[in-house]
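Task: sequence design from structure.
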């Protein structure tokens, strides 16, 4: 069998004595988008840290494109995995183009010279994230949502095999939220990129993901297609919240709405 883009095998990992993830296994193929859903504290960010090489598993194995993450140095890992963290830290004093170019660093030689391939990747990423009008602006002068798009463009320019998004849609307006997910889907189809996306937006997950991994208490409680995993009963159980799950009769797409508990109550 060909190497999966991401293969997490029976991983236990955490902080100090406590495991934040227990017995987690996850396989994502090239061209697939796997959405990771779960309530606060479920272990989603811990999974992101494992995939970014920031945290080592206590037990089990994390492999990207067949390579054990713990055997790769930072540069080698950065050629395989690009991460857009939840709290974006981009070099505020630099221009948008400079920051996106930083995504090319793992591919460049000691002198950081920008070759044609690097410039092409940067221009593609800038266009994909709709940053053409902002390229000369200093990142410090951009809004939070614009900075997020710069971070996403930097990650796309990195051209790894796996893109890890931690809440990519947060802080983006509706148009750019849709645009970012569309860009990711195009990259998946175009060059076999795989994506692991931590999402709070159930609707985005249902529309864009091929697979869903539902985490709770450090364990994967369900994994599979949207139809298999994103059911009323399971989501209510995992999020401990009431919600409405609607199914579009035309195409079977699922839509989710939070429902106010006891709306006519006096409390
Ligand atoms: P999520 O991203 O799903 O909200 P996290 O992966 O951040 O969840 O957290 C999973 C568990 O690990 C939580 O119980 C959290 O308190 C704990 N945790 C997260 N980061 C640390 C840390 N740096 N030190 C100790 N415990 C942590």
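Answer:
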């Amino acid at each position: 069998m060909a190497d999966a883009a991401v293969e997490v095998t029976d991983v236990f990992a955490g902080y100090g004595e406590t495991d934040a993830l227990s017995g987690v296994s996850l396989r994502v193929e090239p061209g697939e988008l796997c959405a990771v859903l779960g309530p606060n504290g479920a272990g989603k960010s811990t999974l992101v840290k494992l995939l970014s090489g920031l945290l080592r598993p206590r037990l089990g194995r994390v492999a990207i494109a067949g390579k054990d993450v713990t055997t790769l140095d930072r540069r080698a890992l950065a050629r395989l995995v690009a991460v857009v963290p939840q709290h974006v830290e981009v070099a505020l004093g630099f221009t948008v183009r400079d920051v996106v170019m930083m995504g090319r660093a793992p591919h460049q030689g000691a002198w950081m010279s920008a070759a044609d391939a690097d410039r092409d990747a940067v221009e593609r990423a800038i266009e994909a994230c709709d940053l053409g009008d902002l390229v000369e602006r200093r990142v410090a002068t951009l809004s939070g949502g614009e900075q997020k798009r710069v971070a996403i463009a930097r990650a796309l320019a990195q051209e790894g095999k796996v893109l890890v998004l931690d809440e990519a849609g947060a802080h983006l307006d509706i148009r750019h939220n849709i645009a970012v997910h569309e860009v990711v889907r195009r990259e998946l189809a175009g060059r076999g990129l795989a994506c692991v996306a931590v999402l709070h937006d159930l609707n985005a997950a249902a529309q864009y993901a091929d697979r869903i991994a539902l985490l709770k208490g450090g364990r994967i409680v369900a994994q599979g297609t949207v139809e298999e995993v994103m059911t009323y009963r399971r989501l209510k159980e995992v999020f401990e919240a009431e919600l409405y799950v609607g199914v579009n009769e035309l195409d079977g797409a699922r839509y989710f709405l939070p429902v106010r508990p006891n709306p006519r109550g006096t409390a």
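The two ends are 57 Å apart (CA to CA).
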